[in-house]
């Protein structure tokens, strides 16, 4: 049995549409799948229909953006992005949360852009609103680079967007407790995605001790599981996460974080046996999903 519970399509930042993405997963022999696009569930129904046509077990998913629990780790605050995965969710209930999230995000990003323009940064609104919405602050950072006000993503965030004048606009995601509550309200299972990884412009990595501290704080908010078996983690990190999950009575999930790139497809092929072993170790997580699915049928 092979499962992949972390997959992105072109509905968020994946390079392929839902059909292409799920077809690749089917051709690589996966038996259980979830689409987990960032802050949207618009690809879930198509993914479900595809999996039914191929006899593949499928669970609706989403990857929600939040920020670390405040004051748990020195220097790590709401300017960092952290992700919580939701599985087995009710789509309509999750859309209610996403509507609130999207409204708050567009309002705050719009205010940020107006302030940058007032301060003389020359932001081009037509560029940013080409799709009638702004995905996140990363798009604004790229614009600052394009108009020569920053030389890199880290420069744009560290020296402009996260300075005292603009940092308050980083707080458009809902806090971690409300994010976990939203998943539970949608009848889902809340899983901390790639626990070592944070984002703020570039990637930031937690240490083992920091992962443990943050996990304990998230458990206090009702976290159900951790993405213990993640393709970018080494064996030492995976072993640490597995033991930590046991200590905190958390479910263990597995995912490739597939974004439609050819190099990621090569990994799926080369690590087929490893993926099977990881799936076996996630049996309790799979069982929990199946139990939720049975309750919905009843």
Summarize the model shown.
This protein is of the alpha/beta class and 298 residues long.
Explain the overall architecture.
The chain has 298 residues and is of the alpha/beta class. It folds into 2 domains: 199 residues, Metal-dependent hydrolases (TIM Barrel), CATH 3.20.20.140; 70 residues, no CATH class. Helices cover 47% and strands 14% of the residues. Helix 1 packs parallel to helix 2. The two termini are 26 Å apart.
Summarize the topology:
Elements (H helix, E strand, L loop, with lengths): L2 E2 L13 H10 L4 E2 L10 H11 L2 E2 L2 E6 L15 E6 L3 H28 L6 H4 L8 H10 L6 H9 L14 H10 L3 E4 L4 E4 L1 E4 L2 H12 L5 E6 L4 H13 L3 E5 L6 H9 L1 H10 L1 H15 L1
Parallel strand pairs: 1-2, 2-3, 6-9, 9-10
Antiparallel strand pairs: 4-5, 5-6, 7-8
Helix pairs in contact: 1-2, 5-6
